[in-house]
């Protein structure tokens, strides 16, 4: 939480930045020009000259122009180093009064961390061997009026990072890589399904009934039709209609909306992949999912393993397949002969500190089969799932518990 002193300091920094913006205008300089033009990508420069020695750089006659947000500034009176970051990477420029001239250097002194800056010059290496552009000209591209968070040492508050993702991207450079990985993952999934004859479609976001999942919907009103509509909770019903209509393989990657809880694992709107295939069994679709996920991880990482929260996950095929009863016995160690003994199962909940209201469950699932099935599902959710690390298919979900479960032949 920001303290009163921190807010006052921030307001003072904003006031100083506005004053510098006005000083630029007084010098006849537009602090928000719209004629930047062509420039070099920092990643391309580093890729081509990252290993080039200093003497060889002197033979490179080409000048380079880069633009990016100033992320660091070290001033030495008549010279300064400024680190610029564009969408592809980060690179240092060296600005010297004797090179750009006294008037231009006075303008440069009005630039600071958080501004977008354009610089042109030749490459050289500093005494610390860092590849740097010796600026022959420096220009303001966008004057930043708000200081970067936490004095530019990173943004760590989780709530702020989620609420102000643009600030998170500025302060934590590794976050943009998450965006790139997501983009590559979605592209891989599309290519994977397209190559196997699936057709991508878009189905209605506003629906007359909230179907395809059990979730609380967002409600809206259609003025022209004078009727209530619901933001979809899943695309399932319309995708299945397409299968009925003759589209034998179909998928959609799009948004869904559920008017329920909010956390780092639950968002009111989220992207879902849903696909359907005619004439396929759940075994066929498990094999397809297994191939897709294994291939996805390998395409992103070059291998089928990855580290997540201190654990190594293995996405190599084949994935483990367990019936729900097998998961209860193998993962949780329950007595297979007593899986239909309600008293025994309730004792397992109590022993593991899981609160459960048996009377309420019996009222919801009055048949013995439904009640036992619900206990199995609760055991899975509360005690088994946290113990499963590698990708695992759980099958034979009890049909008496959910109408979304198809009876298995």
How would you describe this structure to a colleague?
With 409 residues, the chain is of the alpha+beta class. It is 37% helix and 23% strand. The longest helix has 23 residues, at 4-26. The relative contact order is 0.06.
SSE inventory with pairings:
Blueprint: H1 4-26, H2 42-49, H3 54-58, E1 64-75, E2 79-85, E3 90-96, H4 97-100, H5 102-108, E4 116-125, E5 131-142, H6 158-163, H7 165-171, H8 175-195, E6 199-200, E7 206-207, E8 219-222, E9 227-231, H9 236-244, E10 249-257, E11 269-277, H10 282-301, E12 305-308, E13 311-314, E14 320-323, H11 324-330, H12 342-351, H13 358-364, H14 368-384, E15 392-395
Parallel strand pairs: 3-5, 6-10, 14-15
Antiparallel strand pairs: 1-2, 1-4, 2-3, 4-5, 7-9, 8-9, 10-11, 12-13
